Write a sequence for this structure.
């Protein structure tokens, strides 16, 4: 959580910008397979040495912002895009 100087925000001075990593799009998960290392296959519980791959699930960032009082809440990627648009 940080406060941006009024010079960067222009007309949005006085708003507190909060970055929240939990603001992700749960409706559109992305899946990809990753090979398991021998160490992981032999030394993890439950023991499954013949299972060669695992499925990794990632969620894309939510592009929306929420204005709560004088606070602007969003995912760090969306906040970065907002700052880039304001300073440009």
């Amino acid at each position: 959580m940080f406060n941006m100087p009024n010079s960067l925000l222009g007309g949005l001075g006085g708003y507190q910008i909060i970055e929240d990593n939990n603001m992700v799009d749960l409706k559109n998960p992305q899946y990809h397979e990753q090979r398991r290392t021998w160490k992981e296959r032999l030394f993890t519980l439950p023991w499954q040495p013949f299972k060669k791959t695992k499925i990794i699930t990632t969620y894309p960032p939510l592009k929306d912002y929420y204005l709560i009082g004088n606070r602007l809440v969003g995912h760090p990627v969306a906040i970065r895009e907002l700052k880039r648009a304001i300073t440009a």
Notes: Residues 6 and 47 are 56 Å apart (CA to CA). The helical segments are 6-9, 38-43, 76-87. Confidence is low (pLDDT under 50) at residues 6-11. The beta strands are 2-3, 16-19, 30-35, 53-58, 65-68, 71-74.
